[in-house]
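Hi there, hope your week has been kind to you so far. Do you reckon you could talk me through the fold, stretch by stretch? Thanks so much in advance, here it is.
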Amino acid sequence: MMVHHEKQLQSSRAITGTTVILISLALMVFGFYYSITSGAADISGADVRQAFSHFNAEKETHLIVMDLRLPRALAALLVGAGFAVAGALMQGVTQNPLADPGLLGVNAGAQFMLVIVFAFFPFLPFSSIILFCFVGGGFGALLVYGIAFLSAGGMTPVKLALAGAVVSAVLVGVSQGLAILFELNYEMAFWEAGGVAGAEWTQVRVIIPWILLGLVIAILLSSYITMLNLGEEMAKGLGQRVNLIKIGAAVSVFLLAGAAVSTVGGVSFVGLLVPHIVRYLTGTDYRWIVPCSALVGAAAVLWADIGAKMVNAPYETPLGSIISLVGVPFFIYLARRQRRELY
């Protein structure tokens, strides 16, 4: 009887997961088309198709499509998938419902390292800058976990969130001080606002392999993270190499979050919000959570970027502000709902 019930549950989750994937793909396709055709300059669908099939470098609409809107839409999809899967992995490995690259010091660490690069190594290409963002993200996360671990009573989700807030405030403050000292306000403006408006083909080409590598690692680890969620002792009893799983997940998180942060800037809450929605719909099996989070995150950031373009046209609203309108209330709700479990 139990086996039959388990099979029914798995079948139901598979149907739900497939439905989530199909709906997300549809939203991505429609959003991708709408993102390319919408904006300050009205461009028809015929112009878009012509730009792809018979590109003319002397035609302004073709240049807008190929050099501005296409890399912007692709960047939104890539960073959305990166942030969402990074958040899902962090929540799964740490069993912390408040885990998110922006809340646990990854974004602030990457920003700090970005300022260091702009101040002392301004000649570096973007392909090298992204490596510094990986290191900075890891540095920020290690500070957060170190402070939470050394605090009285040990590490809890709320202490991690508080440590993340403190570390992020310190790193952002230092970054802003260095930016003022070295007159980097213009260079850092895009990062602090958060958005893909300035995304270029150079950035997209560089982050694609890093994002894909991070996603592949996450997919390969997905079944192991599901077992890890049963508890570390049980996972060890099932023969799982827990420390190796955690290291692999950390590598994936730094690849995904580092690449996304270096491109889109200070955007939080995607990695917090999306995995919870996906987990609610598909259950606790990370073989569904990881791919669904990637697609839902990609669609969410793409549509948030469309909102950033349209909500205050012809002026743009920062992407980070659009996402925070949903993310902050959700964070408060989540902390209140699970307050008894978090302390």
User: Anything to note?
Assistant: Residues 2-342 form a domain with the ABC transporter involved in vitamin B12 uptake, BtuC fold (CATH 1.10.3470.10). The mean pLDDT is 86. The CA atoms of residues 269 and 326 lie 8 Å apart. The two ends are 38 Å apart (CA to CA).
